[in-house]
Structure formats: C-alpha cells, structure tokens
Amino acid sequence: MPSGIPQIPNFNIKVIFLVHFLFISISCMGSWSGNGFLFYNSLLIFLLLWSIFHSESQEPLQLAIVIDGFSVMLDIILLIMNFPTRDDILHYSAGNTFSAAIAIIHLLIRPVLTYLLVRNLEDRGGNTGTISNMFAANRTESYEDIDRPSPASQNTAQDGYTFASAQPI
C-alpha cells in the first residue's frame, strides 16, 4: 500500500462510497430495477457523501447504516419481483440480466460494507460496538441546562456575597 493512502481523511468511507456507487450505477443500467431501487440507493449515496464532508458528525453514518441494512431486504424483494426472465419478453435482454447479476453481487457484499460502516462509526464516536450504544446520544458538545441551578461557584466577593445566595427579584 502506498504511504500516502493512510493520510487521506475518511479513506475507508470514500472506498465504501466508491464501491456502492459503482455497483449501484451498473445495477441501474437495466430497465428491470425501477425507480424504487434508485430512490433508496440515492439516499444511501447522499448519506455517504454527507458523512465524508462532515467527518465529525455521527448522524450521517448512523443513517447510512440503517439505510444500508434495510436495503438488503429491499434488494431481495425487488429482485424476487422484477428479475428478468426469458418469459418476460419486454424486460429480457443481456443488459438487464447483467445489471440484475451485479445487483445480486452488490446484495452479497452489502453486509460487509455495512459492517465496515459500523467500524467507522465506532472510530468516529468511540462507541463500544453494540447496537444499543451505536445510536446512543454520545455528543461531545457541552450543554448547559438553564432551568437547573448551577453548583455554587468558589469565587466570592469581599462581603461573602455569591450568586448561589442571591435573592430572587
């Protein structure tokens, strides 16, 4: 592996994006797939691009993992319903069969790519790898609840007056 590859930011997500993009593009070349296949795969491509450009945020990766997981089931349903056969004169051609075969290969590698997305989410957010922790609100921003009183500060004025001992107006 060339020495410059590890320095590329978000390298793993970029490779996952390119693999998905290649397989989705070839799968959509046939007329068998319809608009549903293009819709949920376009959402996945958008979320992967979003996670590349916002590398500090976990939400795009979490949504991409969910969409990629549901895409396995949706691909199976779509292939069962629309796979081009010799009996279907309207949709049967070598191009349609080839694009459906590429969709099957993509279906087989989707779980591996989903697992790699989960690993990238763990690297990005420090989660432990369990499903319950993957979508936990593990935010790095600090949040100050203005409805709750803050602990008394240690800084006191000359006469011993603090904000904790102040009377409401």
TrEMBL record:
Region (Disordered): 145-169
Entries under InterPro entries matching the protein: AGTRAP (IPR009436)
Top-level division of the source organism's lineage: Eukaryota
Signal peptide: none
Sorted UniProt keywords: Membrane, Transmembrane, Transmembrane helix
Subcellular location: Membrane
UniProt topology in membrane: Multi-pass membrane protein
Compositionally biased spans, kind Polar residues: 151-169
One Gene Ontology cellular component: plasma membrane
BP GO terms, sorted: angiotensin-activated signaling pathway
Transmembrane segments annotated in the record for this chain: 12-32, 38-54, 61-83, 89-109
Name the UniProt record assigns to this protein: Uncharacterized protein LOC115881017
Organism field: Sitophilus oryzae (Rice weevil)
Lineage: Eukaryota, Metazoa, Ecdysozoa, Arthropoda, Hexapoda
Name of encoding gene: LOC115881017
